[in-house]
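Bug #77: duplicate submission created two jobs. Keeping one. Sequence:
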Amino acid sequence: MHYVAIGDSFTEGVGDDLPGDRVRGWADLVAAGLAASGQEVWYANLAIRGRLIGPIIDEQLEPALALSPAPDLMTFVGGGNDMMRPGFDPARVLALTEQVVDRCAEVGTKLVVMSGGDPTVNLPRGQIVRSRADAFMIQMSAFIASHEHVTFVDNYSDVELRRREYWAEDRLHLNPLGHARVAARVLAALGVDTELPVAGNEASVNAGAIGEARYIARHVMPWIGRRLTGRSSGDGRVPKQPDWVKMEAAS
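Kept job's structure:
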């Protein structure tokens, strides 16, 4: 099997950090899980953090399909960064998603469309994004229902995944446990029996006023600064795995 992942920071693996400014993430874990199921798996990941859905498709879709040999399986996530910006257009996101669906159908690549988890419970003014996301997911559900050949993994509706225990310090990206839970959900959707990770029952600790101020200074203000100056966290970055690499089975 040749499996390629395209998307933004969610698919790149931000939050599941490794030494040397490297990240792992759920897509890596899916590839390893497929290998553990007894298949020979070759894996590529073209995702880059900060990407809007337009650049994901413009920069990643065709290079992914042009890999040699062609991919048997593709996972696609896009639109999360668009949703956090003014002027979010759900119809445009769905139209671009349909481009991915159509291209994969043309070349015979199995497609898994995914939604990211819901971080809004822990984000400042998260309810604004939550109301926008709730409305969009209704439209996404109708879209998926009209494309029965597409596998859909709805991480947004996973209530357990909303707990702070699954999220990194920036509250916007999953931590290693969160990435592991998403990987298990994807593997289950692909027919691979996988145990679903669950956080313990310990109560989350409130950051307090000082902790909240530090969080805003360290994570929120830089994000706002990038928006005001038209910069992205992915500027200058290249895909972490642009060509096929043979995967070892997950231990």
